[in-house]
Specification:
The chain has 16 helices and eight strands. With about 475 residues, it is α/β, with parallel strands linked by helices. It folds into three domains: about 130 residues, no CATH class; about 110 residues, NAD(P)-binding Rossmann-like Domain (Rossmann fold, 3-Layer(aba) Sandwich); about 190 residues, no CATH class. The strands form three sheets. The protein has a four-stranded parallel beta sheet. β5 and β6 form a beta hairpin. The longest helix is centred in the middle third of the chain and has 36 residues.
Length: about 475
């Protein structure tokens, strides 16, 4: 499922549109109610009951950015009603804080403090009610695309094995699988089999099929090309299994890739000069801004490391060789969070609850404070804010031998955060590296300015809710 607003079907797009409207409604109702609110009578009477277009736009834009930051438009969000309401509440608290800060600089663009306070409180109620009702609203969960899978072997079984949860199938319903000659052994239930002798056109008409997924293991002289063409003429979408998995999961199935798909599929385009210049301006500006606001945290972190371990000769900063753009090595800079002798026995995967981590290290790793010195790498042009996380050369050599297309992740600049960090939990093994590679290749293929902004905003969710990986 793609990270743009229309990812995984049009449901997320509809959510964004409707909830933008609800934010505007919340502010409008507060403005209309002002003449009857005694607490606001101290304001200038000329402003009561009136609001400029700039106030509405500012409130809606900041509100939507906060909702994005809380992960409420992540198509794979796995939260019950209480968790969704909590995120909405946190998003509105963030909205209030941002509006309060903005009002001190641009008061004409923002509503009055009492106005945006009441608007954010009302928005929590409106958005929460809408989210509770949205599963029953057409286009937001009640109606899913009806798909028919052509094939019942190894490729087709990925849908059964890897996409079996409700959240994975929120945008589609599998009507059945048609076994094809050449299919390998699988784990698909026989109950879902469709007789291969059934005319394809008749089946799609009878069962209202919206999309056919081509997932047979052997295609040469096996595909019913004429029937597929007739189905397409009748408005049925024909999709390759790789593109289907890419669309619905936000990753590329590396183990299923064949070279022609890489060559002919859209994406995997190098950045042009304009994009490179914009990236440099954005990364440099953000790095300088974060250094300006975070220098007290950086000094405090350095002091805490020195007090715990530095007086005995341990270093405060930790430099480690990583592989960057084009496969070129560079030294990443971090606050030291492990003991000085952590790698006496050679390079090791970092793991969850690592016993090599110091007491201060546990805290700074929890809140990602150990990553702050990497702003220096960003200013030097070795890293960006968004991109695949750089890996150590010892691991890169091994992974490149075992994982197909692993080196392709080095075709873009590594980043402080990335698509894999948003989509995959903490992991530190070759199996985890394969799963992260699927997301990294998806990022390489779909890399855009909008995607970078999306990832950067949702990184707030990773930090607040302690998700993702290092």
């Amino acid at each position: 499922m793609t990270p743009d607003l229309k990812s995984g079907g049009h449901g997320v797009f509809v959510l964004v549109v409707v909830e933008s409207f609800l934010l505007l409604v919340a502010l409008h109702l507060c403005v209309l109610a002002e003449p009857w609110l005694v607490t606001l009578h101290s304001q200038n009477s000329a402003t009561i009951g009136n609001a400029s277009a700039a106030e509405f736009i500012t409130f809606a834009v900041i509100g939507m950015l906060s909702l994005f930051a809380m992960g409420l438009y992540n198509p794979r969000l796995r939260e019950h009603s209480r968790g969704v309401l909590r995120r909405i509440g946190l998003a509105m608290i963030l909205t209030f804080g941002l509006l309060a800060a903005l009002s001190t600089v641009f008061p004409a663009l923002t509503p009055s403090p009492s106005r945006f306070l009441s608007a954010t409180l009302l928005a929590i109620g409106l958005l929460g009610l809408f989210r509770m009702l949205s599963p029953k609203i057409p286009g937001l969960g009640a109606f899913r695309r009806r798909i028919l899978v052509l094939g019942a072997g190894q490729r087709a079984s990925i849908i059964e094995k890897r996409m079996r949860r409700k959240v994975d199938r929120r945008n589609f319903f599998v009507c059945g699988y048609i076994p094809m000659q050449g299919d390998k052994e699988n784990e698909i239930s026989d109950q879902l089999y469709v007789d291969s002798k059934t005319p394809l056109v008749e089946y799609i008409a009878k069962h209202n099929i919206d999309e056919i997924i081509v997932a047979c293991d052997e295609r040469r002289q096996q595909l019913p090309v004429r029937e597929l063409f007739e189905c397409k003429l009748r408005g049925v979408e024909i999709t390759d299994i790789l593109s289907f998995i890419e669309r619905e999961t936000g990753q590329i199935a590396v183990n299923l890739i064949y070279p022609s798909w890489m060559i002919y599929s859209n994406g995997f385009k190098p950045a042009d000069n304009l994009r490179s210049q914009l990236d440099w301006i954005l990364n440099t500006s953000l790095a300088l801004l974060l250094v300006f606001f975070c220098w007290p945290l950086m000094i405090g972190t350095a002091l805490a490391i020195w007090l715990e371990d530095g007086r005995r000769g341990g270093s405060i900063l930790y430099r480690q060789e990583r592989i960057g753009l084009g496969g070129h090595p560079f030294n990443i800079i971090k606050f030291r969070s492990m003991r000085s002798d952590a790698e006496t026995n050679g390079a090791q995967w970092a793991k969850k609850d690592d016993d090599r981590v110091t007491k201060v290290g546990e805290i700074i790793r929890k809140y990602r404070l150990d990553e702050l010195p990497q702003l220096i790498n960003v200013l030097k042009g070795e890293m960006g804010f968004v991109g695949p996380r750089p890996e150590r050369p010892e691991f890169v050599d091994k992974l490149a031998e075992k994982l197909p297309y692993y080196s392709e992740r080095h075709s873009v600049k590594p980043g402080l955060t990335g698509w894999a960090q948003l989509c995959y939990p903490y992991g530190a093994s070759e199996e985890d590296a394969l799963e992260k590679l699927k997301y990294d290749l998806y990022y390489v293929k779909h890399r855009s300015f909008l995607l970078d902004i999306f990832i950067f905003i949702q990184t707030v969710e990773v930090v607040l809710f302690k998700k993702g990986a290092r």
